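Q: Here's a chain of 287 amino acids. Please give me its 3D structure as tokens.
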Amino acid sequence: MYGPSYLLMMDNEAEFIARLIGFGLSEKEARAYLHLLKYGPKTPSPLAKSLKTYREDVHRTLTGLMDKGMVRPSLDSPTVYAAVDLDSALQAAVNKQESELREMEARKRELQELSQQQRFRPSDDVKTFKIIKNVKELISVGIASTTSGQEEVLVVSPPEIMTIASLFGVTDEVSNLIERGATFRLVTDIAYSAIQNIEEALSIGEDIRHYGKYGGIFFAVLDRRICFQGINIDVSRISLNEPLAVIWSDDPTYAKYLIETFEMIWQQAIPAAERIQQLQEQGPQLI
């Protein structure tokens, strides 16, 4: 039977891995990096044995970590792989994400400049539907929609989408939107590990409620017209290139349906403050 110190160590490792995933690593990459960090450089074969996986799988994982600047190979043979020190590794991950965001911003400016040269004929009678295919596109469209928002945002979201929004700048735009006088209501499944993020969101004026075990539904409605609805949001890692499938529409009829669904969920949910108090009384649950 495992003692408290062992369980605490396992819980700390799980938290460390979760934080690494938040920096854009897959779970396999996070586990491999943590193992190299704890136990020192290794060749692929013993590393595969320690991680209980195949050598080919470890090679793919190490390649991903090298691309992110978090692992470096030796020059001799057989190749030994060593973890880059934590501060340098995390900075490399941040630099990569910032580079991708700068690329998105540059493309956004180019499109804005090109749009000013065109003679567009917008019409409220024409309804548009399109499929958003990855996290990068969802962030880009989400920021643009939030920036143009005026009155109200309604969101039902799993924690993963909230983490993505926080990491890649959507939450900052939400703060600006609220400062302009708009309301922002959010329903999510609040876990103990998310308390700090929820409290930060509450501090900028978000109205948040908890609805447990609702199945990972994701949809959002801005100003009773702009709609996002998740088809497949099974995000295995937090990365701009991670695939997903979300419907975007500017159809008010579709928005009305989602608003009615939101209000039903909202009435059944409990205030975030009440949920946080429950979690703090229970404390972290060891699995």
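Q: Can you summarize the key feature?
A: The CA atoms of residues 17 and 187 lie 26 Å apart.
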